[in-house]
Design brief:
Layout lengths: L17 E5 L4 H11 L5 E5 L7 H4 L2 E5 L4 H10 L4 E5 L14 H8 L6 H14 L3 E2 L14 E2 L7 H19 L5 E5 L2 E5 L5 H12 L4 E5 L13 E2 L1 H9 L2 E7 L4 E2 L2 H11 L2 E5 L14 H4 L4
Parallel strand pairs: 1-2, 1-4, 2-3, 4-5, 9-11, 10-12, 11-13
Antiparallel strand pairs: 6-13, 7-8, 7-9
């Protein structure tokens, strides 16, 4: 079963001028490489508080903006003639407390009943759309990095890890449905740690501290009806290194809706550490069950 690809894929529109709104990490670099491999050169709007200065070496056209400079971002996108844009790279969730908004962003914030990720970035996407700039699927140029269902490593999860995945997927999807976080860490069908704003690597370390170094299972899921334009679940080499360091022996992710950065090297590193990775069919709709649901809510097929 292949990864679903819409027939009206935005990449198939060669006349469009593309822009990249870049946060931190490897994601923006991979998008630039993926677009360039298809003959598309992107203008980059880099977030000063987050994006790597190394982007200046990778992008032919780059502009720096502050996190709250929505008006300047729109002006630069128009200046570059951009009609389609990709948002790639993390903006740490706690940065919402330190944004210095311009008048355009201030006006937007006043309209929001909540200031979580979906609400905030979704509102920015609507503003861009009103300006004639379509924000598209952030994985559009990176489909080979998006896994299909199945075991991705040489070793499949053992009986304990499989049971922890089943339990953890139910918990993680319940948490994700409230837009609180996308990752949980489990030991013996007990939830040890739940992600909030700190990120995946930090909760792995916290879970290891709580359990005193016992073997752990990490579960990272997409949100129900995940908007693929932003906040897509990502796993990179640093997460695998954290798992190795803190005795997390298995990882469950959602197929079709997770990005595995440097995928071949990531899987090879997991194999070398004896870590099992399995991708599961994502939840079709928000689960109505309470946390700790079984196979029906988790999408696990045993």
């Amino acid at each position: 079963m292949g990864t679903p690809t819409p027939s009206n894929s935005p990449v198939e529109t060669p006349s469009a001028k593309w822009g990249l709104i870049a946060g931190n990490g490897r994601f923006p670099f991979l998008v630039l490489e993926g677009a360039r491999s298809q003959g598309i050169e992107m203008a980059v709007i880099a977030l000063r508080e987050e994006a790597s200065p190394e982007l200046e070496k990778s992008a032919r056209r780059l502009h720096w903006v502050g996190l709250g400079e929505l008006g300047r971002t729109i002006d630069l996108l128009h200046q570059e003639g951009i009609t389609r844009a990709v948002m790639a790279g993390q903006v740490k969730h706690n940065k919402i407390f330190s944004i210095r908004p311009d008048w355009r962003f201030s006006k937007l914030l006043l309209t929001l009943p909540r200031k979580n990720t979906d609400s905030l970035i979704g509102a920015v996407a609507r503003v861009l759309e009103s300006e004639g700039i379509e924000l598209v699927d952030s994985t559009a140029f990176l489909k080979p990095l998006v896994p299909q269902p199945g075991v991705l490593t040489r070793r499949k999860p053992d009986e304990r890890e499989a049971a922890d995945m089943e339990y953890g997927l139910g918990v993680a999807r319940h948490i994700a449905s409230m837009d609180l976080g996308q990752t949980v860490v489990v030991r013996d069908r007990a939830c040890v740690a739940i992600e909030a704003m700190e990120g995946t690597d930090e909760i792995i370390e916290r879970a290891a501290r709580i359990t005193g170094g016992e073997d752990l299972t990490v579960i990272k899921v997409s949100k129900p009806n995940q908007d693929m334009r932003f906040d897509v679940p990502v796993v990179g080499l640093p997460t695998i290194e954290f798992m190795k360091r803190f005795h997390a022996t298995a990882l469950a992710v959602d197929a079709y809706k997770t990005l595995l950065f440097d995928r071949a090297q990531l899987v090879a590193t997991a194999d070398g550490a004896g870590i099992a990775i399995q991708a599961f069919e994502p939840a079709a709709t928000q689960t109505a069950q309470t946390a700790g649901g079984g196979a029906a809510s988790s999408g696990v097929k045993r």
